[in-house]
């Protein structure tokens, strides 16, 4: 994990602030920082999103490709995650330095999306055992400003929301090879229903309190954190405990409650924002990184 | 400004990809009008193409205006747009791109118009102009987007140019409404053209509007064509096949489809099964179950004019299809289920006379029998009767028995020789326009002289007694010969060919033009040169008593015609001593009093040629027969006054023999030097099944023909004599010729060496070297040979086997067409000859068909078809056809193949517009069918009206 060096005095200051529900940047313990989100900014992908959470910058691209379903699950399509931590984000990521973090993020995303209720993957299957859509979700970490897991998962959900899968009809007549029919209308596309997709919410235990959306400095003070994937309905699809410190069962239960509540709110707000952006339609000008 | 185009594509591997392309929008694309003061027109260019005062006078739009047609208008009304009176037209890039995508010929014509400064056409790149580019909207089809782009551009022009109006031409009702609502001036082409002041014949050229189809009510006659994507899937899965339609030359309701992958052609019979496919179209077909397989009806379809009620015909055809066909005759049969690509072009023909004088709808009959009638609309029918006209097909809706088309232009009166020549050149796709200035610029300047440099590079053969032997009146002499005694007692034989490749350098306009023409076309009374006359009849022609460049091949031979050493090839300068005709040369040889060197030389050549010929025949070369005729033309009227079969003299065969020798020698040489890119000629051995008709015919006379090899065939033909029928052998040879495959040019790198063989000449390798003035293949061969002896340099295209093969393919096509055109020309002259005559002639039955006899008339070398229909419609035919025995019987008279008959030749005038040579039976007498000999009648009077079917 990316660390900043803090003196003991600084750490004490942060911990004390949190005790009083008043963090060093003026937030309360359950408050998120400012988030900027834009989708559909990369035209060559099927779906894309860019998220800026304070200084954390994440770019996600989704590419849809036709492949054979896995033999054990012949009737569903699937998502494949890949995370790349750019060496631009932190000097620690140089060479293969980012791989550990990337694997960790990848594993969490796989787990978060492994529940059958989050995304209707069976609709991605075109022909049982032969042909299905595989969505390659590439997450690129461009800048580190704390709370990377949450940021990455929100960007992934936004990118999936934005994903437009070409509408393809499969025809098969007896004794013939399958034949794909691709619509020539670029607007004739299928969208994914991401309303049940989870976002990750990280609760960092600092002192005796826990906070959401820890900044880099706060992360340096944190000994243990609980990461949970929460859907808009408040159900939790994955949890991971991370860090050297230990958590007692009571505080886990409490953290779970907070996590569900905040996670639900984040999801709701996210969907609202995405729909708002969608309404602007074609007239919306993409910004990309020009700012 | 940058935007991007997004589209989704299916890759070959079966995956689906999203592809994004950059698309730059600019603000400096000019409008191309001279009245515009806003755009910065490029300074270097002359004036912008669109004029200040466009001279388009229409009652619909009183102000001066530019025209802006949409895609369908350009595609379908290109004949109108091509008219010189249509000027100042803006062609949008959207339109041009779509036209290119949908019809390459239309696109080429459009490009020509855009390049013509007199037309004042301008291409406006609206897709790249930031003000006129439109993006596709959700739910919008790509056609709708293009229509919107066109309207957007029209609107832009309207606001950009104030002094001149913009008129949008569109036939799409929705587009027109939308444009009008947006405040644009939009008219349909029909309304606009009709509103023009001097519309005249332009109205006739309008393509038939699809919407106006009310002919024959709305009875659907044809099954629907399948959608292209269904076709493609079907082809991939092997359920359908793709192929080229080759309509039968004898019956337009029958066709063969050549399908890649199948060795036999697929047969298609009947109007419904053909389903609106026209000769040349690329179609998708479905095989019929074997129980419905059929075979060509071997029935010569009586001329279409004589068929009366359309509905009747339809039923008749359906019956025809259901006829049970004996199993052994069945051929793979299919039906057309969709059209992949139309290959419609313009067709020559005449109007069918209409019963109603004022009618505007008419039927057009193409000169080619392969093409169905075409329904056109014209107001000038009266003008056009008796004229040859050109018509283009626009569409063929399911409800119409005939395709719909429109009038393009007229050629002239039927029966006039110039018109008819034009027709047959057009029909055979013979390029016959005058040579362009660019081509003429490549010619050497006159007076032409031989330079010092030429002298040094070439061997001087001026001192040798060379002469040329050709048919009388020949001006393009491309070969000359000599033969002289060497000091060692052997003979030296030389063949000297005009050095055309010296004048035609590769990749010049002259070269390209010659390559495209491929061959000189000889009609009975005219010649369409492959190279300009200065070369063909002067500088290249090896005339007597002038110095000419030649490409010479010299052999040393013994008196027994055995070759000694290797042949020598050289570029030379010769000075021919005499240009002889075959007859003159023959007289010199036969005259015992002449002993000059030239005569001696000819005698030696003749002697050697006989030995060579004998040897060739022993090797299994075939001597086949075809009859060639010559017309004696009245010097005043240019009408033929007599016709005669060409005479073959010894000297013909003498020249031929040495040309063959030269060709074979050169073929070997260039193949050795350029094994992968030599241009050769091969004549594939025909598959044994080709000979079936020949064997059957011979068998009927109790003879056997051995077709196991060329040699066996040649021998059995020599033996085949039939007492009492002197012409029998010739007829057998004519039939053999018909069994043969076409000889073709090819590039040696494209085929294995054992397929190089020339079957007819029994030569393992062959090429054309001896007539570079009239054949382009010979020019290529000359270039290769020159490169192989170091006399000339090669160039990249010459050594590229693909390119050479492409040139060969074109030559094969041109060659075939030139042959057809030549034959058609002979037919034409035969008709002119019989215009005032009725004559009885001896003939022989060549083929027996279901309802006709094909009769060969040796005197004129022509074939006539004797229809054996019943004298009246409905009555039973007098004749019974025996398919097994191949005979026709009427009472006690039986017609076999090869039977002698006497027939009467005359011009059938029952149809004034389309006269043709007809035959009637005189002997043997069949009561109620044959006619009395012509001598009993006055010859000038037209014969009694032809019996009605």
TrEMBL record, chain A:
Keywords: Cytoplasm, Exosome. GO terms for molecular function: mRNA 3'-UTR AU-rich region binding. It is found in: Cytoplasm; Nucleus, Nucleolus. Its main location: cytoplasm. Pfam families: RNase_PH, RNase_PH_C. GO terms for biological process: exonucleolytic trimming to generate mature 3'-end of 5.8S rRNA from tricistronic rRNA transcript (SSU-rRNA, 5.8S rRNA, LSU-rRNA); nuclear mRNA surveillance; nuclear polyadenylation-dependent rRNA catabolic process; rRNA catabolic process; TRAMP-dependent tRNA surveillance pathway; U1 snRNA 3'-end processing; U4 snRNA 3'-end processing; U5 snRNA 3'-end processing. GO terms for cellular component: cytoplasmic exosome (RNase complex); nuclear exosome (RNase complex); nucleolus. Residues 31-166, 201-261 form the Exoribonuclease phosphorolytic domain. CDD domains: RNase_PH_RRP42. SUPFAM superfamilies: Ribonuclease PH domain 2-like, Ribosomal protein S5 domain 2-like. Belongs to the RNase PH family. This is Ribosomal RNA-processing protein 42. It comes from Littorina saxatilis.
TrEMBL record, chain B:
Its main location: cytoplasm. It comes from the Eukaryota. Keywords: Acetylation, Cytoplasm, Endonuclease, Exonuclease, Exosome, Hydrolase, Magnesium, Manganese, Nuclease, Nucleus, Phosphoprotein, RNA-binding, rRNA processing. CDD domains: PIN_Rrp44-like (cd09862). The keyword Lipoprotein does not apply. One of its GO terms (cellular component) is nuclear exosome (RNase complex). Residues 458-791 form the RNB domain. One of its GO terms (molecular function) is endonuclease activity. Residues 65-177 form the PIN domain. One of its GO terms (biological process) is rRNA catabolic process. Gene3D superfamilies: 2.40.50.690, 2.40.50.700, 5'-nuclease (3.40.50.1010), Nucleic acid-binding proteins (2.40.50.140). InterPro entries: Dis3_CSD2, NA-bd_OB-fold, PIN-like_dom_sf, PIN_dom, RNase_II/R, RNR_Ribonuclease, Rrp44_CSD1, RRP44_S1. Its cofactor is Mn(2+); Mg(2+). Signal peptide: none annotated. It is found in: Cytoplasm; Nucleus, Nucleolus; Nucleus, Nucleoplasm. Component of the RNA exosome complex; within the complex interacts with EXOSC4, EXOSC7 and EXOSC9 of the exosome core complex (Exo-9). The catalytically inactive RNA exosome core complex (Exo-9) associates with the catalytic subunit EXOSC10/RRP6. Exo-9 may associate with DIS3 to form the nucleolar exosome complex, or DIS3L to form the cytoplasmic exosome complex. Exo-9 is formed by a hexameric base ring consisting of the heterodimers EXOSC4-EXOSC9, EXOSC5-EXOSC8 and EXOSC6-EXOSC7, and a cap ring consisting of EXOSC1, EXOSC2 and EXOSC3; DIS3 associates with the base ring of Exo-9. Belongs to the RNR ribonuclease family. This is Exosome complex exonuclease RRP44. It comes from Littorina saxatilis. The lineage of its organism: Eukaryota, Metazoa, Spiralia, Lophotrochozoa, Mollusca.
């Amino acid at each position: 994990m990316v660390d900043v060096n803090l003196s003991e005095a600084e750490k004490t200051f942060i911990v004390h602030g949190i005790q009083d529900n008043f963090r060093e940047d003026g937030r309360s313990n359950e408050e998120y920082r400012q988030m900027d989100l834009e989708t559909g900014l990369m035209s060559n992908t099927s779906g894309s999103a860019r998220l800026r959470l304070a200084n954390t910058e994440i770019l996600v691209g989704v590419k849809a490709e036709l492949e054979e379903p896995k033999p054990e699950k012949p009737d569903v399509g699937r998502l494949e995650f890949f995370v790349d931590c750019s060496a631009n984000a932190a000097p620690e990521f140089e060479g293969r330095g980012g791989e550990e973090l990337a694997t960790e993020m990848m594993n969490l995303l796989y787990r978060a999306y492994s529940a059958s209720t989050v995304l209707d993957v069976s609709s991605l299957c075109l022909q049982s055992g032969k042909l299905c859509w595989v969505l390659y979700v590439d997450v690129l970490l461009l800048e580190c400003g704390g709370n990377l897991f949450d940021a990455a998962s929100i960007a992934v959900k936004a990118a999936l929301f934005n994903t437009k899968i070409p509408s393809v009809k499969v025809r098969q007549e007896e004794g013939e090879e399958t034949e794909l029919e691709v619509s020539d209308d670029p607007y004739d596309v299928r969208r994914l229903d991401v309303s049940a997709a989870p976002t990750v919410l990280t609760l960092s235990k600092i002192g005796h309190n826990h906070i959401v959306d820890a900044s880099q400095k706060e992360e340096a003070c944190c000994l243990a954190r609980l990461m949970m994937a929460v859907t808009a309905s408040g159900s939790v699809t994955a949890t991971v405990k991370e860090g050297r410190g230990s958590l007692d069962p009571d505080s886990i239960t409490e953290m779970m409650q907070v996590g569900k509540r905040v996670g639900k709110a984040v999801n709701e707000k996210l969907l609202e924002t995405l729909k708002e952006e969608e309404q602007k339609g074609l007239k919306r000008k993409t910004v990309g990184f020009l700012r | 400004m940058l935007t991007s185009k997004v589209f989704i594509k299916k890759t070959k591997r079966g995956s689906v990809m999203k592809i994004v392309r950059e698309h730059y929008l600019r603000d400096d694309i000019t409008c191309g009008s001279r009245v515009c003061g806003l755009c910065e027109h490029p300074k270097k260019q002359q004036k912008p193409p669109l004029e200040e005062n466009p001279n388009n006078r229409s009652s619909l739009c009183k102000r001066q205006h530019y025209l802006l047609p949409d895609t369908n208008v350009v595609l379908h009304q290109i004949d109108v747009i091509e008219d010189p009176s249509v000027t100042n037209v803006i062609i949008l890039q959207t339109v041009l791109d779509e036209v290119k995508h949908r019809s390459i010929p239309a696109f080429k014509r459009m490009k020509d118009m855009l390049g013509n400064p007199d037309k004042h056409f301008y291409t406006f790149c609206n897709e790249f102009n930031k003000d006129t580019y439109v993006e596709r909207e959700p739910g919008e089809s790509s056609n709708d987007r293009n229509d919107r782009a066109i309207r957007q551009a029209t609107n832009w022009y309207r606001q950009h140019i104030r002094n001149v109006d913009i008129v949008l031409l569109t036939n799409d009702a929705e587009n027109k409404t939308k444009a009008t609502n947006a405040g644009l001036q939009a008219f349909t082409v029909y309304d606009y053209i009709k509103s023009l002041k001097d519309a005249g014949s332009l109205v006739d050229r309008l393509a038939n509007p699809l919407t106006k189809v009310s002919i024959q009510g709305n009875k659907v006659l044809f099954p629907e064509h399948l959608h292209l994507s269904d076709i493609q899937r079907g082809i991939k899965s092997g359920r359908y096949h793709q192929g080229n339609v080759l309509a039968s030359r004898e019956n337009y309701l029958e066709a063969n489809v050549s399908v890649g992958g199948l060795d036999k052609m697929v047969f298609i019979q009947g109007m419904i099964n053909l389903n609106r496919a026209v000769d040349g179209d690329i179609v998708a077909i479905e095989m019929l179950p074997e129980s419905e397989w059929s075979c060509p009806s071997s029935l010569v379809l009586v001329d279409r004019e004589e068929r009366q009620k359309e509905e009747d015909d339809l039923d008749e055809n359906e019956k025809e299809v259901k006829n049970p066909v004996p199993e052994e005759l069945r051929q793979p049969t299919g039906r057309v289920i969709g059209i992949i690509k139309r290959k419609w072009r313009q067709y020559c023909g005449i109007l069918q006379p209409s019963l109603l004088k004022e009618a505007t709808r008419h039927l057009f009959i193409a000169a080619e029998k392969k093409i169905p009638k075409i329904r056109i609309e014209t107001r000038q029918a009266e003008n056009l009767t008796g004229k040859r006209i050109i018509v283009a097909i626009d569409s063929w809706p399911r409800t119409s028995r005939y395709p719909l088309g429109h009038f393009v232009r007229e050629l002239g009166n039927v029966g006039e020789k110039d018109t008819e020549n034009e027709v047959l050149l057009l029909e055979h796709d013979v390029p016959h326009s005058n040579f362009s200035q660019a081509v003429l610029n490549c010619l050497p300047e006159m007076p032409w002289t031989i330079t010092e440099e030429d002298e040094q590079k070439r061997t001087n053969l001026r001192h040798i007694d060379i002469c040329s032997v050709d048919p009388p009146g020949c001006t393009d002499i491309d070969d000359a010969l000599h033969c002289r005694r060497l000091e060692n007692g052997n003979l030296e034989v030389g063949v000297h060919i005009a050095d055309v490749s010296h004048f035609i350098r590769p990749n010049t306009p002259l070269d390209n033009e010659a390559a495209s023409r491929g061959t000189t076309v000889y009609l009975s009374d005219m010649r369409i040169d492959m190279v300009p006359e200065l070369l063909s009849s002067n500088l290249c022609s090896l005339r007597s008593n002038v110095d000419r460049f030649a490409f010479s091949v010299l052999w040393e031979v013994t008196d027994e015609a055995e070759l000694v050493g290797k042949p020598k090839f050289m570029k030379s300068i010769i000075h021919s001593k005499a240009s002889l005709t075959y007859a003159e040369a023959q007289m010199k040889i036969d005259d015992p009093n002449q002993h000059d060197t030239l005569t001696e030389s000819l005698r030696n050549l003749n002697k050697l040629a006989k030995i060579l010929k004998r040897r060739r025949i022993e090797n299994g070369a075939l001597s086949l027969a075809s009859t060639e005729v010559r017309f004696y033309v009245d010097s005043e009227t240019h009408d033929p006054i007599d016709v005669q079969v060409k005479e073959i003299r010894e000297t013909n065969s003498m020249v031929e023999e040495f040309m063959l020798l030269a060709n074979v020698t050169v073929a070997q040489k260039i193949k050795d030097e350029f094994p992968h890119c030599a241009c050769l000629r091969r004549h594939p051995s025909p598959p044994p099944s080709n000979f079936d008709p020949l064997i059957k015919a011979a068998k009927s006379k109790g003879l056997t023909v051995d077709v196991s090899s060329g040699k066996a065939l040649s021998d059995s033909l020599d033996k085949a004599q039939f007492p009492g029928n002197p012409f029998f052998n010739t007829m057998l040879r004519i039939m053999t010729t018909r069994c043969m495959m076409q000889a073709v040019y090819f590039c040696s790198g494209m085929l294995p060496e054992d397929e190089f063989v020339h079957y007819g000449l029994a030569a393992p390798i062959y090429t054309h070297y001896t007539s570079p003035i009239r054949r382009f293949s010979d020019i290529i061969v000359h270039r290769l040979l020159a490169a192989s002896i170091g006399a000339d340099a090669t160039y990249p295209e010459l050594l590229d086997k693909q390119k050479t093969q492409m040139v060969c393919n074109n030559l094969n096509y041109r060659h075939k067409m030139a042959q057809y055109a030549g034959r058609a020309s002979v037919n034409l002259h035969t008709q002119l000859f019989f215009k005032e005559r009725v004559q009885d002639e001896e003939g022989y039955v060549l083929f027996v068909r279901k309802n006709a006899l094909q009769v060969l008339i040796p005197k004129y070398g022509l074939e006539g078809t004797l229809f054996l229909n019943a004298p009246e419609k409905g009555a039973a035919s007098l004749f019974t056809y025996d398919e097994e025995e191949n005979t026709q019987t009427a009472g006690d008279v039986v017609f076999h193949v090869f039977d002698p008959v006497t027939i009467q030749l005359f011009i059938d005038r029952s149809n004034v517009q389309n006269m043709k040579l007809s035959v009637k039976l005189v002997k043997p007498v069949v009561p109620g069918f044959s006619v009395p000999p012509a001598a009993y009648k006055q010859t000038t009077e037209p014969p009694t009206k032809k019996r009605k079917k």
